[in-house]
Write a structure and sequence with these properties.
The protein is of the alpha+beta class and 270 residues long. The chain is 31% helix and 28% strand. It contains six helices and twelve strands. The longest helix has 23 residues. Bound molecules: biotin (BTN).
């Protein structure tokens, strides 16, 4: 009997030890840093150096020069997830929006699943909004070799455990703020990686229409009158968000009729 009890105690201690070790060790595909310039920059350097593998993740607890869309800076908070996933896209080089859609849909579906009743939407092209506030930004950088889309670096900044945002980022939220609880960054990073890799495996010419449909179902401000500013002309106008077309253009209905806009030509005025 005594041997039996000792055996149970030892086994339970061993299990705890193994669990602790699993938390402290890193899988071969993860390059984790306490601090980096930018996880996307590090991933691009690995590609340049010929070291990158499909499925590798670069994660940093803090970025000194986190990059956002259109040359903007991405603010850092140690409670948040900053990761870049390196992939070899199995998508033709002229269908870059497919990867954008796949990323946005995977993130939206994941947040929908872990949130309790959150309203999750994709703001064209690939910001993720939770309860009408920005919770996640995506910056995809590409390496083309000839006609071949050799690599993409999918940079994801997800506000996870940040408790509040400065007034100038009034439109931002975090998962913690939306739920009142904190989250495990490692678990979220691992889930997002597997979700994205699975999603990419399923991509083919046949699955693009369903992906576009899923993307449009999540579209931020769908069928709602919304303010916009056209960058080239400075024209400010209101329009209904109709859909995103297969070329990745935003289709709006304004008083001028149906208008379509390429990525980078339009600002949302919210
Ligand atoms: C945006 O402007 O919305 C895109 C933000 C993308 C930020 C992430 S954080 C991890 C990765 N590394 C970077 O330097 N940027 C992306």
């Amino acid at each position: 009997m005594l041997i039996f009890v000792i055996d149970i105690i030892l086994r339970s201690k061993l299990r705890k030890l193994l669990a602790q070790n699993a938390e402290n060790t890193f899988p071969a595909w993860l390059h984790y840093f306490d601090q980096l310039d930018s996880t996307n920059n590090y991933a691009m350097r690995r590609i340049d150096d010929g070291l990158a593998q499909h499925g590798e993740v670069i994660q940093a607890a803090f970025q000194k020069e986190g990059k956002g869309q259109r040359g903007k800076k991405w603010a850092n908070d140690r409670g948040n997830l900053m990761m870049s996933l390196i992939v070899k896209p199995n998508v033709p080089a002229d269908r870059q929006f497919v990867l954008s859609m796949a990323t946005a849909c995977t993130l939206a579906r994941y947040l929908q699943a872990i949130g309790n009743g959150w309203q999750v939407a994709i703001k064209w092209p690939n910001d993720i909004y939770v309860n009408d506030k920005k919770a996640c930004g995506v910056l995809i950088e590409n390496i083309f070799r000839g006609m071949d889309w050799a690599y993409a670096v999918i940079g994801i900044g997800l506000n996870v455990n940040q408790a509040s945002f400065p007034r100038e980022l009034g439109n931002a939220t975090s998962l913690a703020m939306a739920s009142g609880r904190t989250f495990d960054l490692r678990e979220i990073m691992t889930d997002i990686r597997s979700g994205l890799l699975n999603r990419l495996r399923q991509l083919s010419l046949e699955t693009y229409p369903a992906l576009l449909q899923e993307y449009n179902q999540h579209l931020f401000r769908l069928d709602k009158k919304t303010g916009f500013r056209e960058r080239a002309s400075g024209r400010c106008f209101e329009a209904y968000v109709e859909e995103v077309d297969e070329a990745g253009r935003l289709v709006l209905l304004s008083h001028q009729g149906i208008e379509t806009f390429n990525f980078g030509t339009l600002d949302w005025v919210l």
